[in-house]
Amino acid sequence: MFCYCQSVVSVIRQENDRRNRMYLLLLSAATCKRRKKKQQQQQSFYLSTTSLKTNMAGGIGQWYWNAAPNPFGKDQPAQWIAYSSNDNKTIEDSFIKKATKVELENHCIYFHERMQVHKQDFNRQRPIKREEKK
């Protein structure tokens, strides 16, 4: 009788262990699904807020740099030259993401200072500006 009871207890423990393992597997699968759903919600929120920021800014901007011989001189008018379409896209994407700077091939653009700085010579600086495309 003692052997029989002991084997029944052993079977019950094994069954409980199996159920606990199954419960843990189901719990981890549910947690994984919730985590994925939360990530998808965050991603869709990010995409919607990014498009909202673009719309609030009035659309896509065109970026210009001052090509005057003395860009900081008051005696000469500014000569604004548009950036190439590839550079403009890079600059605009970084601006929308609220980056502090963006690196182009030969220059760095600092948004807060509204300044273009040459990578090799920090003293070569020029003002930049942004206008909304119509």
UniProtKB/TrEMBL annotation:
Q: Which InterPro entries match?
A: WWE_dom (IPR004170), WWE_dom_sf (IPR037197)
Which SUPFAM superfamilies does the UniProt entry name for this protein? Answer: WWE domain
Ranges for domain WWE: 49-130
What Gene3D superfamilies does UniProt report for this protein, alphabetically? Answer: 3.30.720.50
Please, which domain of life does this record's source organism belong to? Eukaryota
Question: Under which name does UniProt file this protein?
Answer: WWE domain-containing protein
Q: Which organism is it from?
A: Rotaria socialis
